[in-house]
Amino acid sequence: MPPRDNGAEEPRDGYEFGLLGPLEVRHGGQPRPLGNSAMRSALACLLLEPNQVVSMDRLIDALWGEQPPRTARTIIHGYVSRLRKLFTPDTDESTHDPPRIVTRPPGYMLQVDSDRIDAHRARALVNQAGNLEPEERSRLLSRALTLWRGPVLSDISSERLHRMVAPNLDELRMVALEERIAADLELGKHHGLVVELSELVEQHPLRERLTGQLMLAYYRSGQRARAQACYHALRELLADELGIDPGPDLRSLYERLLRDDETLAAPKRSTGGTATTGDGIPAQPAELPPPVAGFVGRASESAALDRMLSEQERDSAGVLAAITGTAGIGKSALAVTWAHRVAHRFPDGQLYASLRGFDYERAPLSPGEVLTGFLKSLGIADDAIPVELNERVARYRSLLARRRVLILLDDARDAEQVRPLLPSSDGSLVLVTSRRRLDGLVVRSGARALPLETLPTTAAVELLDRAGVPGRSRSEPQAARELADLCGGLPLALRIAAARLAANPGRAVGDLVGELTDEQNRLAGLDIDDTDTSVRRAFDISYRNLHPSQAWTFRLLGLVPGHTFTAHAVAALCGTDADTARSRLRALTLAHLISEPRPDRFAMHDLLRVYARELVSAATDDGGEKSRAARRRLLEHYLAAADHARRFLRPPRDELDFSATEWEVPGITGRAEALEWFDAEWPNLVAAIDTAAGLGWHRIAWCLVRLQFNYLMVRCPWEDWVTIYTRGLESARHIGDDNGTVLMLAGLGVAHSRSGSPEVALKYYAESQRVAAALSDRGELAMTQVNMASALFRLGRYPEARRHCEDALRTYRALGDRYREAGALNNLAQVEQVIGNRSTALEYLLEAERRYREADDLEILAMVLNNCGEVSVELDRVESARRYYGEALEVAQRCGSTMRQAAAYLGLGDVAALREDHQVARRRWETALSIFEAGGSPRAAEPRERLRRGKCRAEESGVQHCSGV
After folding, report:
1. Taken in order 306, 308, 313, 318, is the CA torsion positive or negative?
2. Which of 69, 331, 787, 874 gives a 20 to 30 Å CA spacing to 142?
């Protein structure tokens, strides 16, 4: 069957993206206008890693390097907002599956078919061409080369981004070009290649492969003298500029030219004996296993291997590469596929051995057994093979001393099994695969590590198509993506799923998705009858090699509710200390049963998590009590850690205190670290709340919800906010905890109030007040009155709002609670402002400002400063307003509150408009709009209206803001 056509010579429907030249976005063949150079750089970063999360830190680094502006994060929020608009089709356009930029902590992810990005399409074509016949190979590579429109990202001003990207893509073009020429040489097109190669060698005088191809083209065209002259010219150039000689491939080719080696005379493709390639290099022995059918993806990993090979050829140095990863990740498939693609560059052959490091039934091969096989392949008779291992090693290395051989060592157990099999020659390349990280091979033998990750969704769907029923994904696109997600991008699982679909062509993809959605059936559904192939079996082999303490830790990791975990969390889960937990986690990382995507933050593949849960269930003989105890310890850790972290964001406004815990908490010492911890742990905390409620630990559930309030006020993830507080309210009511009920109702009120639904907020606040009235806590009742005032104010019910504020203020002053008094003062100021008592309002606000500065509550301080700016505008104190808004922006940036930053930008725009600086005003309003839109805030309507009108009046300076609990 011919390969799938990945090219795009003709315009296609939908979006197309170009990186191989000036950055380009086309829709239906028509170019789309882009923003400034920095915004284009941000888009380029997302396009370079489609369907992968690009962190905010990486975006900042790519755009500005080591000296980003203080507002870098805000600027990027604005760029993302504008890019989202770019991908929103007009009402009269029809776009199938348009690209989407989604927020995924710690950054953004561009969801798009990578085939629509020219750089990724080019890589796919180059990889796809590797195992094809010369004619088809030449055709695909030619198509890949047409995708380059000029210098890579030539209209991007970021030098840092150029340094990161351009060399790799330029090298990809040269590899594609050289491979296409090699295919054309195999097809006997040497006459036509002479002119092209002459120009290329002049442009790239140090690329030895191009020179070799030109020598061969000259030789086959009857121009032997010119062929030899090419070699001498390069040798002199290398000696003058680098002080080195040509590499072994080129020297070998030159020597064969001198003796008129018959293998050079014609482009033969041998069916037996000594095979030849288009470059005229013999390839024997040829022990590589057959290429893996339907191989997809791995473009970046293949490019990394290509770079290693190019460095070897340039520096005449041996290369040892270690491809590592978890079971079923596709290590062998990548190694074998890449080895076949570059086999022609190793004229003395390819050696292969399956080391059986993790075989289910057979012991690993010893180095001596492997060496015996290799020596036979290299022509040594049985009776001449040395008995002693050291002698076998010496004989093996002597035979390879002047040879250029590719050696593939598959499924290695450890470094000790591999080390005796390493040649001493500079011309050979050794490729090792293993489920372990082989750090010893990296440290002692200089191995280049290449860890594999799972396939992105687009490549996973393509693998399902190629290995199963071609075209199935187009008939059920959504189901195919869901199936790829359920397989976790694990190639082994994807191939098994594809095989099940192929065995029953009439079965819908959605049916298999339904079967695998149930975690209890997922691993069973990824078995194939009458074979030993299964995901569970692959995992079993790795698991059985663990130390008992590591195995116990691995099983318990199946109980972690989230997708990532830290050593502190695992210490609580296992009932040990953080150092011991970290040591066990590192051991599991070495075995590729978990990963460490960030320092001291670990993760587990979804299918491995299902496998671990099965193990912990099977190992439990006490009715599940050990599992419940482990889960409770983990939840207690989250309580203590969240309580510790929240106190750096804002003062707690409740009596909850979980500092007296036996479990270690992260060493957070400041606001930035606390915010970073919450950002990283947020999905885990949401999952932990569900777990606690599901297990009937309702007090833990609602307390854990409440401990997130300070973070929610800063980051404002509206949907999560409402979801977890609703769950917390259910738990508090379930156990009849009135204090918890008051706090959960109040939190729901704040969420709805801040997201633009004051009517809904008022219902929650009113119920919260009714419950609080039955309690003896006057401060709690006053808190509900402040909240009521906030909602009533937004609904225009000013007398009621004023009465609640004054009642709460009297209560707080009687209690001596200066901090909570500030909230009542702020809300009372809003009422005074709207009824025209602006001077009184400003006095209240300044008093509230002092209270919040005392408490170091930066998030609410920023709100109060914004309110001071609004009142100052109404008092015609424009310079004071500018100062208040400027300080509000600085405070909001310090505490990380994007919504307060947006409000400050909105006010600064209003001040600029009053000063008739309309250009500055527009920029400020655009920034405010982008932040409000990125956060889903209803306040986006305010800057949008100002921008529409092009000017504003002083009385249109924006709605007032009241504080919540």
Report:
1. negative
2. 331
